[in-house]
Amino acid sequence: MEGHNDLTGRVAVVAGATRGAGRAIAIELGARGATVYGTGRSTREGRSVMNRPETIEETALAGH
């Protein structure tokens, strides 16, 4: 991607990247070339107290 959509070389931090809007934002930023650091409470090894099925690892893989 070129122009204003290209975020190559930029770094983004997205809180709540496991699901919902945070996940969508993290994926889009990654698709535009940014290095994204995302946080979330659910992982493959341990779910949050809300017991949601989404994991932060799935978000990371969706951006590739």
Automatic annotation (TrEMBL):
Protein's name in the database: SDR family NAD(P)-dependent oxidoreductase
Region (Disordered): 38-64
Sections of the chain in a coiled coil: none
Biological source species: Terrabacter tumescens
InterPro entries named in the record: NAD(P)-bd_dom_sf (IPR036291)
SUPFAM superfamilies assigned to the protein according to its UniProt record, in alphabetical order: NAD(P)-binding Rossmann-fold domains
Lineage: Bacteria, Bacillati, Actinomycetota, Actinomycetes, Micrococcales
